[in-house]
Amino acid sequence: MGQMQTERRETKAKIFVDTLPDLPYADGEERANRTVAPIIRAGVSGWNHPLWDKLVFPRPAPTSYHPLDFLSERLDAIELPDSHAIRPELAKLYAAKVARNPRFQFTARVPMSITGERDVDAARAWRQGMQPLMEAGRLGCVVMPFPESFRFTADNRDWLIQLRRALSPLPIVADLPHASWTTTEGRGTLIDYHLGFANAENAHTGYLTWKVGYLSVGGSEQGAHLYSVGELEEMRRRMERYAGFSESTFVIFRNAHRGKSVINALQMQSLVTNFESKLAAPLRVDKRKSVAASPRRAA
Predict the structure, then answer these.
(1) Cys bridge to 29: 25, 76, 97, 183, which one at CB 3.0-4.6 A?
(2) Predicted confidence (pLDDT) at residue 281 exceeds the cutoff of 50
(3) What is the pTM of this model?
(4) In the chain, what are the domain boundaries?
């Protein structure tokens, strides 16, 4: 029985590993016969960053202005950081703010205090706050972040499953930096319990274990780096590879320093959707300029 289960996981996992030159679709359908194009959404993590009020958002701010009004007209995703307190009434406000972009969806990070301290009650309470976004069709996925020390063990596997159940029915992606989760058994757990895999740009992983694909770009070390078009093209090729098997894929930029994440998200969005951003002025990381682009037009 154990051998059969391992063989089944190995067969399923081969579908999702980005190592083969031309993978077939999971249902055997040829790529040429694919009738629905994969949806790739590019976005940024948060909006409360130093200097963004001067470099990204319009000045002077219009009456009743909120950063979501501006960003959601230009980007297709924004990630709510793990420090963000979500209440149902706030989630409803966020859903209303992004109504002008039919493609827009939020991603959100579960607080590390929940994943690290193994607080099931707090997880259920946090889930309730996210429910209005899901009901409005504006929640793309929820990311469960774990420390690098969180390796694949029986106890940790049980906690991952318990947390997944506590957050159900939210769409979940697990951020598991330890390499042990990329083994056949580790990926098999994610496949069996409908958990996505959070790929990191600097880790060069390319796994899809559920219907939601996810790529995180930048971080503490890359926070001040403005990615070149060549670097973005490499990410796009890597991302589109597993996006072809998913219902939706997110690429979230975290290089927030001086608005660089907005620039790169706009560039990536243009690459993956063939959308040509019409800029009010050339994108420049400059004290005198804004990185603001013209709003997206609804398809």
Answers:
(1) 25
(2) no
(3) 0.81
(4) 37-273
